[in-house]
Structures are given as C-alpha cells and as structure tokens.
Write a structure and sequence with these properties.
Layout (H helix, E strand, L loop, with lengths): L35 E4 L2 E9 L5 E4 L10 E8 L9 E4 L8 H8 L3 E5 L9 H13 L7 E5 L1 H12 L6 E5 L5 H5 L2 H5 L4 E6 L3 H16 L4 E6 L13 H15 L13 E6 L4 E5 L5 E6 L6 E8 L3 E5 L10 E4 L8 H8 L3 E4 L11 H12 L8 E5 L2 H11 L6 E5 L17 H6 L3 E6 L5 H14 L4 E6 L13 H9 L3
Helix pairs in contact: 1-7
Length: 500
C-alpha cells in the first residue's frame, strides 16, 4: 500500500515521483497573450470578466481601474509549466503573504485570482474563470486553493460545490459558514486533502478550523493542522513556504495518479483514511524559532481505509506495507483514533478489519462473520487472523473464535467483558475448544477496571486450568479507560510470534 503524506520531524517533505504523470488538462496548453507586467519576477497577465456576458478579455495590469460590471482576473505564469499544468487559486486578498505562490511558480505552477471581497463571493463568475483557464488555456481541471481568512471561507464555498474539480486546499486561519461544514463530505469522497495553518490564539481557530477538522475526520478525509503557538489571526502563513508548497505539490501529483481499489474490498467500496490525532510540538527555526503544534497525515503515518459492503458495512484498514502472509486483525467495534495497539500493528504490516454488525440485531451474527472470513481468506489474507476486542467486544470475538478455533492465531483483549449476543452459551463457560486448539490469550487490563476480577482474572484461572496459555498485563492506576496499553511492543511481539 502506498504510504501517503508522512513528513519526518527534521524536514517537512521531500517527494520523489517516478513514472509518467497523467494530465488533468482538458486541452493542450495555450500560452497567455496580451500586455504583461512583472509579479515577483514572473510574467503577470490581467483580464476583465464581463459580469453579464461572462466574456473574458485581456486588460492592462498597470491600470487597476475596473469599468462598471467588469471583474479583474489575474494569472501569473511560471518559467516552465510543470507536467499537467497545475495551478493554485487564491481565494481572496491578492498578493497578501504571497510566499507560497512564489515558491509554487518556481516549481512550475500557474497562479490565478479573481477579485473577491466581502460582497464579491464565489458564484458563476468563478466558474467562468475556471473554464477560461482550463478549457481555453489547458490548465489542470483541478486547481489547488490557497485561502487566508475570508479566502479560506471562499475556497471552501467553491470547492464544496465543485468537489471533483479540486486537488487540495491550504486554508490559513480560515473563516467559514455552517454550510461549508455541512458540505465537506463531497470533498472527502473525492479524496481532497486539506491543510490548515492557524494561530493558537486566533478566535477563528475554535470557531471554524476545529469544526472543519472534526467533521473531516468523521468523513474519512485527510486534514493536517499546524497551530502556531502564541500567534493570533495575523501574520498569516509562514515565512518559509516549503511546508505549504510541498503539501500542494504532493497533493496535485497524487490526484493525477490515484491509487486503484484492491480486489479484496468487494464491489463499489469507498475510500477513506485512518491516522492518529496525536500532537507533536516542533520547532521551525526558519520562522524565527516558531513552535508549531502539528497533527494529521502530514506528520503521522496515514493508512488507506476501505468502506466495503458484503451485505453489511465492513471497514478494512490497510498497512502501507503488508507483512508476509497478509496477517490481519479481526475485531469488533469502531477503530478509534487513539487505538495504539492497532496503530502499532498497522505499522508492523497487519490489516485491521472491523467485522460486520447488523442494524436489526443485538450484536454480530455468526453467519455474517463467517462469510467475511471466507471472502478475505480467498483473497490471500492469512487463514488464522488475530481476534481482537475491547470491553464487551472481547466477548463477541471470543465467541466467534470458540466456534472457529482452527481459524484463529491468538486472541487479544483490552479490559475485556466476556459476554456475547451471538450465543446463549457465554464464552467463559465454553473455553475448552480454544484451549484444545492451543489458541493463546493476551489481555491488557487496568488495575482499577471494575470488570477486572470477573473477567481478566477469571479467564486467567479458568483457561490455565484447561491447559491454555494466558498473558496478562495489569496497568497500575488505570480504570476501564483508556483500554489500550501504554507500551505496545509486547502486544505486537505476541501477535507476530503467533502468525502461521
């Protein structure tokens, strides 16, 4: 699986791309003509868009007076266009903190703008400008957006109504509207990555950027956030534009070469992403030793996640590089963003599969889980997965394992509660098949968990009496939550050692 986006701490991003680049331009590139001016060492061309007819004509960059009913448009041309003719679209505030655009011009991007302010919002004029650049001049159909403050709001306003015509969005202390938040699902479905750069004391951070981040997570989208410690709404951006330019360049190239869907995901699967939300606090010495809180797929491993359907919804999270034998974890329950053990297993090459649970039942059904097992085993997945469950989910996976002891490598539980809806006979009363098959248990429990004595300790006594093997880690001072271990190394070592 392709590793998408991870940036080391020392340097933000160095991308190496191989193979031919697909173009997303509608036609062959047509150079711009007319009077030109200089913009930071590059050729600038101005145009006027008639707001009634939508006709676009060349204009004089040195004469900034716009006749009534005419909208000023600007495009800046690189010395040598990059493959696919990529371009970035400024959402508002032309020439304010332009360092990212200057860097993109050096990398072969065109830079474009259409006049926007509090009263001139994205509308059909923006559509006409997009068509002029793509249809007439052959620029990419999917621009990258750069939006600062209100420009961020406008970038989202246009992008959410044209989700299949955007490569990525870099929003800097963005404003917003509730409609922007409600319409993010289309961007996630079209795999549009987002980057927010915000000041930690900007009033808009909690009001808008945090909302974008939370909702985009729910839709399975990729959003990375850089929060500048102690900064307010201004100054925007960073003096070193490399982080933003790297993000945009990588996103555009990935959009031109999207990964294919794996055969094991079934018919018409959806694609999302899974990554930790853990913060890292990093120094950016090129910005005057600015410290920035960083999180998201630019700064942590990011994994492709498939929303498959085999009669019922199934979530399959794929490692970036699978281990030999295609090992996998068959688990019950939502894969949370702080699931440390699962993140360590993904890094070790395991797939994480959330088994199906119907909407009209009290819990999983044996037949559904058997069918999914057969589907994955027939596509090269290990015939002996790890069974995993936290809390009450531990009872469900243990019950499936009891019915299929020859199809289980081991069972991993976090603060388990051994109760199942699958079967009238409860797992603690039917452990002999697992002990006979030699299936080992590994339990991580909090010393203060109310379920400890009746479950983890009871399992330990009963299973050992049956000749089975149980490894137990008790975490001092921990209750039922968090369920995961502080140290994941013993968990991963245990599961790896029991793979066929």
């Amino acid at each position: 699986m392709k590793h998408r986006y991870l940036i080391p701490a020392a340097i933000l991003f160095v991308a190496i791309f191989c193979g031919p680049q697909k173009t997303m331009a509608a036609d062959a590139y047509t150079p711009f003509e007319g009077a030109k001016a200089d913009w930071h060492g590059f050729d600038r061309y101005d145009f006027l868009l008639d707001e009634s007819s939508m006709e676009i004509k060349p204009a004089d960059a040195n004469n900034q007076v716009n006749p009534p009913g005419q909208r000023r448009c600007i495009v800046v041309v690189p010395k040598t266009p990059a493959p696919g003719n990529p371009w970035s679209w400024r959402g508002c505030y032309w020439d304010h903190q332009p360092q990212t655009e200057i860097e993109l011009l050096k990398r072969g991007f065109h830079i474009a703008y259409i006049t926007a302010d509090a009263s001139l919002k994205p509308d059909k004029k923006w559509d006409a400008w997009h068509a002029f650049l793509t249809d007439k001049h052959g620029l990419s159909k999917k621009p990258a957006f750069i939006g600062m403050s209100r420009g961020g709001e406008y970038a989202y306003r246009w992008a959410t109504t044209h989700p299949d015509e955007v490569s990525c969005i870099y929003a800097d202390n963005p404003g917003g509207k509730s409609i922007n938040l409600a319409d993010l699902e289309g961007l996630a479905k079209n795999d549009v990555p987002l980057l927010h750069v915000c000041g930690s004391i900007d009033p808009l951070l909690g009001k808008y950027s945090a909302g974008f981040e939370s909702i985009y997570h729910q839709f399975g989208g990729r959003i990375s956030v850089m929060i500048k410690d102690g900064y307010a709404h201004h100054p925007h951006s960073l003096s070193d534009p490399a982080p933003m330019a790297d993000f945009i360049e990588q996103s555009v190239k990935e959009m031109a070469n999207p990964p294919s869907m794996p055969d094991f995901a079934g018919d018409h699967p959806g694609r999302g992403y899974y990554y930790s939300l853990e913060n890292s606090y990093r120094d950016f010495p090129k910005d005057g030793d600015t410290w920035i809180t960083c999180r998201g797929p630019l700064f942590t491993p990011c994994y492709e996640q498939y929303q498959a359907s085999f009669g019922l919804p199934v979530i399959i999270t794929a490692p970036n590089k699978e281990a030999p034998g295609r090992p996998w974890v068959y688990r019950a329950g939502f894969l949370d963003r702080d699931a440390l053990a699962d993140q360590a297993l993904l890094a070790a090459g395991f797939y994480i599969v959330v088994g199906p649970v119907g909407y009209n039942e009290d819990g999983p059904l044996m037949d559904n889980w058997n069918k999914l097992y057969q589907q994955l085993a027939s596509h090269g997945f290990s015939k002996k997965p790890v069974l995993e469950g936290a809390g009450g989910a531990a009872g469900e996976v243990t019950n499936w394992a009891i019915a299929n002891p020859d199809k289980v490598s081991c069972i991993y539980c976090e603060n388990p509660v051994f109760h199942t809806h699958m079967n009238k006979v409860q797992p603690m009363d039917n452990l002999q098949p697992l002990a006979t098959a030699g299936v080992p248990f590994f339990c991580v429990s909090g010393a203060l968990d109310p379920a400890l004595a009746a479950n983890t300790r009871a399992l330990e006594r009963k299973y050992q009496a049956l000749g089975g093997k149980v490894t137990v880690i008790i975490q001092d001072g921990i209750g039922h939550y968090p369920t995961g271990p502080k140290d994941t190394k013993p968990v991963v070592a245990f599961m790896v050692s029991h793979q066929p």
